[in-house]
Each structure stands twice: as C-alpha cells, then as structure tokens.
Amino acid sequence: MSFDPAAFRHQVLAVLDGHARAFDVPTERHAVLRGQIAGADDIHLRRTFPGHITTSAIVLDGEGRQTLLIRHRSLGRWLQPGGHYEAPEELAVSALREAVEETGLSTLAVDPWHEISGLPIDIDSHLIPASPERDEPEHWHHDIRYVVRAEAGESLRPDFAEVEGAAWHDLTALGEIAPCVLRNLRQAGLIGG
C-alpha cells in the first residue's frame, strides 16, 4: 500500500478542523502541529522534529465506568495506551494496535462513534523530554486519541517490554491525566454524567 505524506497532512488538518468545530477548540491550541502541516513536515515519521503524530486509546469498559491505563516505562506515569503512528495505518487503527500491544487484550474495538462522527475524541500536543540515549531532542507528540471498548472478562496481559503494568481505574483518573478527554466523552454522550 503506498503512502502519500501530503495526503496524510491534508487528512490530519481536516481532522484538526473538524475536531476544533465539534469541541470548540481554539486553533492556537494546535499551533505547532498546524505550523508543521503548513511547512510540509513529514509528521508521520517519528524522527521528524519539532514533532510528529502519535495515537492513543481511551480504553473504556462496556459500561463506560472505568478506563484502562498503562504505567508508562520511560515517563513513570499512568497514561492511556498509545505510541507512534506507523504509516500507512488509519489513525483509529493505529490507536487500537497500540492498545492491543500494550494491554494484551485481543477483543478491543474502536467505538462506533468515531465512524459515525469521523472525529477523534481528543487531539493533544504535549512536550516529550529530550532523550540523549535515543538521540532525540525535546519534541512534541501530536496525540490523536480514540475511544476503544473492552469486552468483559478478558484478562490483562501487559507487554512488560513496553509498559510497567496495566490496570483498570475509575474514570476520574482521566480527569487527572487528560481532562479534555473526560469533557469530550461527556459531550459526545459516550459516558454518563
């Protein structure tokens, strides 16, 4: 399958614009990413600086009462599963792949809301510390986030080469690590309250 970086940038810009309209996000919130798109940066490559695309999964249980978080190995924090985008994947498929890899759950599925809306639940650009051992300067992860649903009863099998652990948490944990996600989940009607 061939991959067209210009078409990908156009797709990401359309996703940014649609998300901004749906969730009332000011365009300056994604100024760095928008600048990279305008500058024709290869945002699909993890060696593109000052930033590149990542995807992550907001994994919810069937009732939408709990979220599955992983303990990030290098950052030492509980976060949603995610990682670097790999071309030519679709963005939602990339988020799903990362969730399956990091949690070991094989029955995960992207929430149908995404196909209906054509939008991610959140887009967050955040700085990642420099990593001299990887020869990476401080840089931006432009994280495009999707809701993924888990079926009841499957046991967690985290990939300890990737993460330090995986555990279910109350949804309030999202308020601490990704408050916009929690707000957007409510606005989209994907969780109660």
UniProtKB/TrEMBL annotation:
It holds the Pfam family NUDIX. Residues 50-193 form the Nudix hydrolase domain. It comes from the Bacteria. InterPro entries: NUDIX_hydrolase-like_dom_sf, NUDIX_hydrolase_dom. PROSITE patterns: NUDIX. Coiled coil: none annotated. One of its GO terms (molecular function) is catalytic activity. This is NUDIX domain-containing protein. It comes from Microvirga alba.
